[in-house]
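Task 17 of the worksheet. Students: predict the tertiary structure of the chain below and write it out as structure tokens. Keep your answer in the requested format; marks are given for formatting as well as content.
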Amino acid sequence: MYVCVCKGITDHQIRAAAHEGVSSVDELRDCLGVASRCGKCSALAADVLHESLLERPPEQVLFYAAG
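Model answer:
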């Protein structure tokens, strides 16, 4: 579905950006141009991004013992 009509950005593109590491609407704006014109899509874009981040597998964090 189209999320940003002004820029022609779909939910699939937002999900792909989240998969690549985008984690905020500001980063989406820089990467895809979402919410950079009229701004009416920003709430929906944030919802799609948030949903995508919840689906993203947790990053592995390695802890090292301090010597």
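Marker's comment: The chain has one domain: 2-55. Residues 3 and 10 are 5 Å apart (CA to CA).
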